Amino acid sequence: MNNLNDPPNWNIRPNSRDDGGDGSKWNYALLVPMLGLAAFRWIWSREAQKEIEKEREAYRQRTAAFQRDLEAKYHAVISENRRSVAQLSLELEKEKNRTTSYRDALIAQGRKLVEEKKLLEQERAQVMQEKRQLRPLRSMYLSCMEKEEDWQRRAQLLLKEGT
């Protein structure tokens, strides 16, 4: 392994050249393709990063539009529900008023019937009292009628006998 803290004492030594220089003539042979690959990777990663950012922005825009659409629908539903609640509360109030008026009418009608019943009871009591007061007069009237009928029969008998 390489000891990176002590570069002169590398474990892997460069190949020595024939002319006495350090390293091989092929040491830098892979440098150009490697630099090309690094440049390609750098360009590719920048382009990919641009596409990723573009897609992220498109995704953010779509999600923001979707969220705005959902919020608009939510507010529309909320306002519709509030409108229907207000309408139903008005209808409920109308029904309460109607039942209150019916109840009041029934109470008034009941009171009126009670008053009429009292009046009828009073009239009945008066009639019964008059009836009690008129019984002796009735019996007198009936006795007078019987006497009248008796007198008429006798008169007719006398007329028949006299003729």
From TrEMBL:
Sorted keywords for this record are: Coiled coil, Membrane, Transmembrane, Transmembrane helix
Q: Which residues form a coiled coil?
A: 49-133
Protein name per the record: Coiled-coil domain containing 127
- According to the record, the segments passing through the membrane are 26-44
Q: Which domain of life is it from?
A: Eukaryota
Q: Which PANTHER family does the protein's record reference?
A: COILED-COIL DOMAIN-CONTAINING PROTEIN 127
Please report the organism this UniProt entry assigns to the protein.
Answer: Molossus molossus (Pallas' mastiff bat)
